[in-house]
Design a protein that fits this description.
This protein is mainly α and 82 residues long. The protein has one domain. The chain has three helices and no strands. Helix 2 (26-38) runs antiparallel to helix 3. The longest helix has 35 residues, at 47-81. The protein is elongated. The termini are far apart. It is a peripheral membrane protein. InterPro entries: NDUB7 (IPR008698). Keywords: Disulfide bond, Electron transport, Membrane, Mitochondrion, Mitochondrion inner membrane, Respiratory chain, Transport. It is found in: Mitochondrion inner membrane; Mitochondrion intermembrane space. Belongs to the complex I NDUFB7 subunit family.
């Protein structure tokens, strides 16, 4: 189920995105890497693309963390019932 922030496998392959970076934010990484290559990785360039990508990655991290915490809370609640 692709979303606005997920690129297709063919797009990822065409843009040579490493497998480790192919997550839900992969569609935002492609324009960021393109901008970085065009500006020779100057740190003050591509700020909009970088911040958009980092915000997506952070939100993804928070979602994973919240799911893990809810599983831990559920296990603790089940242990307390026993």
């Amino acid at each position: 189920m692709p979303s606005a922030t997920t690129a297709s496998q063919q797009e990822l392959k065409d843009n040579k995105v490493p497998i480790a970076w192919r997550d839900q934010c992969s569609a935002l990484l492609i324009p960021l890497n393109t901008c970085r290559k065009q500006t020779m990785y100057l740190p003050w360039e591509c700020n909009n693309e970088r911040h958009t990508y980092e915000k997506c990655v952070y939100a993804l991290f928070l979602m994973r963390r919240m799911k893990k915490m809810s599983k831990i809370r559920l296990q603790k609640a089940e242990e307390a019932e026993e």
